[in-house]
Specification:
Order of helices and strands: HHEEEEEEEEEHEEHEEHEEHEE
Helix content: 25-40%
Distance between the termini: 66 Å
Structural class: alpha+beta
Largest sheet: 6 strands, mixed
Strand content: 35-45%
């Protein structure tokens, strides 16, 4: 109980007792009894609102690192009288870094309202905001009821997409280990090979100009990469989440080059569009920071290694 309010109440009781002792009449005993019973009466009046108060937590799904984000504490109360004050005990844990803080906030005269609490976005990661418990006080502020909280909200602090320190030659990286094979069913392909005509080849695939020079039918055979999988491995995050920034930039750059790929971190994330690229980064941030998981790189077209602000490929 708040010491200051207890002292005020004791002064009130002492004043009522002094009035009863010094005043000769019927009012003194009733006034003293009213002063003594006042906390109990106010507790009974406040109890429905204290028990009926509901708390929910709301947070933006994603926010950029360094941006502004608020945790909204939503109070709802179906009773007429407001709750005098509520002390909310919150825990905010970064699932990626493992950092956690516990904070207490006091809100007064609550009916149906929302209050905002700023969230720290200095580090990337998924912020897990949990309501541990809350304490509701009666209208006099002398008695409190402690209730367990069940509300939770998640907010992912995303890295900016920042280019690697050294330029990345994507053309050389993606073509260095490319193994081509005939395209099943024929059709168009950027790469092709020349060979002699075989029964079953279509007329569209015949290279008529070259055939007229050689006297034999020559066919263009379309080729596609046999090892088409591209991996991005998050090897080291580095200082100030630099590796995460480069990872997001590299993944988006490959999407611009129309190159689906797999992000390798705590798990494997298949990426074939910008939304999937952002979801992959958000997925990485939702688990504790650790070494990249194992994967089968046999036959990979290219493996990009992200280490801090640097990108290497093999």
């Amino acid at each position: 109980m708040p010491i200051f309010r207890i002292l005020l109440y004791l002064l009130l009781v002492a004043g009522a007792w002094f009035f009863r002792a010094s005043y000769i009449g019927w009012l003194g005993p009733y006034l003293f009894a009213a002063a003594v019973l006042l906390p109990l009466v106010m507790l009974l009046v406040s109890l429905p609102s204290m028990m009926g108060l509901q708390i929910a937590l709301l947070a933006p799904e994603r926010v950029m690192r360094g941006g502004k984000a608020n945790l909204t504490v939503d109070f709802s109360n179906a009773r007429i009288l407001p709750v005098h004050s509520v002390t909310v005990h919150l825990e905010i844990r970064n699932r990626y870094t493992g950092d956690r803080t516990r904070q207490n906030y006091i809100f007064r005269n609550l009916e149906n309202s929302r209050c905002e609490i700023p969230l720290s976005t200095a580090c990337c990661g998924q912020l897990e905001c949990t309501l541990l418990r809350y304490e509701c006080r009666d209208l006099l502020g002398l008695f409190s009821i402690r209730r367990r909280g069940f509300a939770e909200a998640l907010c992912t602090v995303m890295p900016q997409a920042v280019e690697a320190a050294a330029p990345v030659n994507f053309e050389a990286a993606l073509s260095a280990a490319t193994i081509l094979k005939p395209k099943y069913g024929g059709g168009f392909a950027e790469e092709h090979d020349l060979r002699s005509y075989r029964p079953g080849d279509t007329a569209n695939s015949i290279h008529w100009k070259l055939s007229s020079k050689t006297g034999d039918l020559i066919v263009r055979e379309p080729l596609v990469p046999e090892n088409s999988t591209v991996f991005i491995v998050l090897s080291r995050v580095g200082k100030d989440d630099r590796g995460l920034e480069v990872l997001r930039w590299l993944s988006r750059r490959l999407i611009e080059l129309d190159t689906p790929h797999v992000v390798v971190a705590d798990s494997l994330y298949a990426v074939d569009n910008e939304d999937a690229a952002d979801n992959a980064v958000a997925g990485v941030l939702s688990w504790p920071m650790r070494e990249a998981c194992s994967f089968d790189a046999k036959g990979a077209r290219c493996v990009f290694l992200v280490s801090g602000g640097e990108v290497r490929w093999q």
